[in-house]
Structures are given as structure tokens and as C-alpha cells.
Description:
With 341 residues, this protein is an alpha+beta fold. Helix content is 36%, strand content 21%. It contains twelve helices and 13 strands. β8 and β9 form a beta hairpin.
Amino acid sequence: MRIVVLAGGTSTERDVSLSSGAMIYRALKNRGHQVILLDVYLGYEGEDLDLIFEKEEDWAREITGVLKTNPDIEQIKAMRPDGAKNFFGPGVIALCQRADAVFLALHGENGENGKIQACFDLMGITYTGTDYVSSALCMDKGLTKDIFACHGIPTPEGFCLKKGEPVRRPGSFPCIVKACCGGSSVGVGIALEEKDYEGALAEAFAYDDQAVVEQYIKGREFSVGVIDGKALPVIEIAPLQGFYDYKNKYQAGSTIETCPAQLSEEKTRQMQDYAEKAFEVLRLKNYARMDFMMGQEGDIYCLEANTLPGMTPTSLLPQEAAAIGMDFERLCEKILETAVR
């Protein structure tokens, strides 16, 4: 098939997206597809677009320059004087329309929030991941928690705050404060006591106009991928220092990850059931990943859903797939097949 792997963009997760995109590009190319890796914001200006899929080696050299681009977001935006009027870079829509499918390797704003998905739906472009409705629902952590509560999926107690509103305080400390629509733990902090709270809110509001304040769960952290409605093995995440923040997610050796997680059969199935139910009630399609905490008493809490999970060397979903004998190339192929179907 002709595949466009769409990565980059202008979110705080741009670097992660480019890393995911590069791995997916190589995997699908090794599987015999005609693949191009494209930065959604910078696009491509050059030869006849109809020839791009045929000249993969030339294209690979071109995209290497994009992968090495300085990740400063304001500098990236300055490379496109027309960026405020059109998010899509030159040639992006035309190339996506020429492809059999687009593999979305985007993370964060204007990648996971449903806007690109809605645009592609209008244009009849097939893409991986879920649709625009569930993308938007899951991007908003406050809405996600409300839906979990309505459907009996346990989630930490909490509330939302808007920037500029009177500050509401949690009933107890410590608590978690996070940007409502962030990703990769950007804009997430722990307020251990009252004096930390204002600073944690300021950090969250630096990335979003709304923040989620929720109960701090002391215990073990897990994640469960779901493909086509069926849960993968549970993976446990144990950072060597601190919590599972941006550094611990993407710096090799910062976190001990165990898959399958060392849990009883009952707890494993319970967590997988919650993951599959979350997939259903959030109206997710294709694939996603749910994050969990388990308290010291064994209570399970679903934190959020990730509609375009990371596909980097340290990402969780590929490790979960490997636990059932599905290597990275086959995982990418499976996601693609499910999306096209």
C-alpha cells in the first residue's frame, strides 16, 4: 500500500512524534509498503507529488533533515509565515489524498484532539487511530473522568479549574495537578502540601487554560493497550526516581518496565476489563492505551486514555505487543490493517 506516516507538528510532543514516525516509517517500509514520512506542519515542496511514493530513497534523505530540525516550537512556527492561516504544510493534504492510508504518528495538540481526524473524514482520507469525536473526548482529561464515572470505571476523585477563576483547593494533600489537554506528562505535577499547590497550578496553566486536580494515589502504575477492542498484556511502570514524567517516559534506563506485570490473574483480568470497557464507552476505534494506578490496598483507578500512544524505542504499547509475540513491524501492520478494514 501507499502510506503516509504523518508526524511532527507544533505541539509540546513534537520530538516524541518525530521519533514515533521514524520508527513506524522504517517498520512499514520493511514490510514492503511504499512509505513516506511527512511533517504535518512543514510539509514538502519539491518534485511532482505523484513521483514521491516511487522514489523512497530520495524521500528518506529529505526527511532526515526534518528529523534533525531544532525542536523549539516558535522556531518551527517561524519557518511557515502562513502557519496561522493553514496548519497543514505544503503538499500535506495532496499527498495524504494520494495514499491508501495515513498512519498518524502525531501526539498532543492538533494531532490527538480530533481536528485533523475531522478534516480527513471530510476529505475521505483513511487514517489510523480513532475518529474525531473520541479523539476530542479523550484529549480532555476532565471529560474523560466524567465518562468513566458515569460508566462505573473507577478513577481518582477530582475537579477541573479554569485559568482566572477563583482557586478551588483539594480536600487533602498530596494531590496531582495536570494540564487538562496535555500529553506525555507535560504540565503535570504533584503538590505534596498546601504551599506547592499554587506553583503546580501555574505549571499546568502554562500549557492549557484548564487544569485537572485529582486525588493522589500512592501505589503502583500500569498501562494496558487495546487493539480492536481487545486488551494486550498489562505492563507495570516503575520510575527509578520521581513519577512517570516526560524524562522518565523517554529517557532509556529511567524506568523499570515489566510486561506482563507481576499481578494475580484476578487483578490482571480486572484491569484488562476496565481497559476494554474504557475503549468501549469512549467510543474508541482501532487502538489506544489506558493508564492505571493501583493503590496500596489493591484498588484500581483508570487515569486516562491515550488515542495515539507513543511508538518510540521506550514506548509501552510495543512492549505489550512483544509480550504476545507481536514484533514492532507486525504491530504497525496490525494497526494499519485494522484501520483500513
